Amino acid sequence: MKTQLIAVLVFLAHLCHAQIEGNWNGELDTQSMKLPVILKISKKSKGYTATLVSPNQSSKEIPVDKISFNNDELTFDIENLRAGYKGTYKTDHFEGDFLQNGRKMTLNFYRNAQSESSNTPDVPYLNGKAINTQKIDDFLNYMVQNNQAIGSISIFKNGSEVYHKDFGQQLLSNVSYDKNTGYQIGSISKLITAVMLLQLVEQGKLSLTDPLSKFYPDIPNAKKITIRHMLNHTSGLGDYVGKTGGNWLFDQPVGDQAIIAAIKKQGVSFKPGEKTRYSNSAYFLLSRILEKIHEKPYHQILKENILAKVSMPHTFSVLDHSKNVFKSYELKNNTWNEVKDFNFQNCIGLGDITSTPEDLNIFINALFNGKFIKKETLDMMISNKNEKFFGLGIMKMPFYNITIYGHGGDTAGSHSTVGFEPTDLLSYAVTINGEKFNHNSFYLALLNLIYDRDYKYPVFGQATAPAPELEKYVGDYTSKDIDMGLKVFVKEGTLYGQGTNQAEFTLNSTGKDQFTFDKAGLKLVFMPENNQLKLTQGDKTFLFNKK
Q: Domain for residue 267, yes or no?
């Protein structure tokens, strides 16, 4: 069933790339001062419009002449000021530069949650209400039918799985898999690493105030950067994964020394605690600190301190060489092709772990049930009062009025998220190894469906799923109501219809089992379980039966 989407303010990590309308607060760093600015973005039928205001200078809103948002990159121009902006979306904010008269100034934007959430209705907690899993099934079937996504979902309530679905793997050719096949979970590895570091804090073997210089004295600013700064992404360290020529990590293991050299070369971009900037470099160093204290390799620490405490049979660090792992894929020319991904030995402790949605749910439920760290340590981990969204290795992810705790993870071709909501004792995990429909929008759709919010299916145009997914509609249909036969067939991965002695026409997917041909005002609703379809044109509806 297709229903209407209600707009939602989402800070969920890896959830809101496609939801940029609203107010964004920033501080323009002019070197001599930091000037507050507010960017107000509105969605129009074609693209976006925006205004910029500097409240310390004037309440007047300055029109933005050109604004675009593509592939997580936000750009806009203000001709009256001879200025422009270019920024990249990073988890919960934009990082970029404001250019004016040849001068480049740092300008990062964060959502103004307070001003926008006041007009947003609260989402009721589940309070024991069952999740409408049929809605989720319908959505996933629609995604697969339109060749949009490949992956798996698991949902837990009260510590037990209430929903599981693998979707789209049948779209891949010559790929073998089973219920134990794992996924690369990317930066969700950081959450697990953070938990193991906090175990050391509980044991008195590490302090959150320990300086980085205690372990790596040669790293820039190491005397001022603490373990806490590194855990909550306020260290000022860069991102060795995203350095120029980022594919240097794809082929062979480059070794710790090469990575540390890259971290040193990048230096720091701000004073510790001054700003928040996501740092893979910080978590690389944290993982090595973990190894230094334990005097063991990361994969052994993982087995002894996480996997030995709960049953997560499909979770491995890269050095345990799990072979049963999905590759990542991208859609090109209507065919899913394997994506070249990282050599994950270059990302140990920050992006190397493989797992399944079920195991991720087991992990996060165990975390909140005290299996890994004490309650007071968990409270410290998630509170981190000076940060809106980053705790100590965990992300706070508001969905309307509901706060979810978890983490997201991306590799070159896979996308994952795991979240826990304490009031309903609800958790969910998604792993995607084939993406056409944006994974952030996918997560947003899932949350709307879990909480029974109205949701409008995206329209993808003509149905271009591989023939096996469309085959259930194929056939010759006749109707007692109209003297015309209707042939439905697949050609080059696209679904077509053709009336007797008439030209063929493409069928555009608009919902589960629903298609249209807009030029003729046709709507077709298939009922494959009954070998029937309903054809509507104008105010007339005709029932067709498959021969």
A: no
Residues 321 and 172 in one domain: yes
**Residue 293 burial (C-beta neighbours within 10 Å; 0-12, 13-18, 19+):** middle
d(CA 110, CA 38): 9
Instruction: Judge contact between 147 and 465, C-beta under 8 A.
Output: yes
Tokens 């510590």 belong to residue: 159
- Its sign, for the CA torsion 367, 368, 371, 374, is positive
- Helices 439-450/133-145 angle, 10° precision: 150
What is residue 404's three-state secondary structure? Answer: strand
Query: What is the span of the domain harbouring residue 100?
Result: 22-117
Residue 188 in any domain: the answer is: yes
The answer to whether residue 264 is domain-embedded is no
Query: 334 in a domain, yes or no?
Result: yes
Is the separation of the CB atoms in 134 and 432 below 8 Å? no
Q: What is the mean pLDDT of residues 291-317?
A: 97
pTM for the predicted model, two decimal places = 0.69
Most confident of 200-209, 265-274, 336-345: 200-209
Q: 526, 483, 400: which is closest to 15 by C-alpha? A: 400
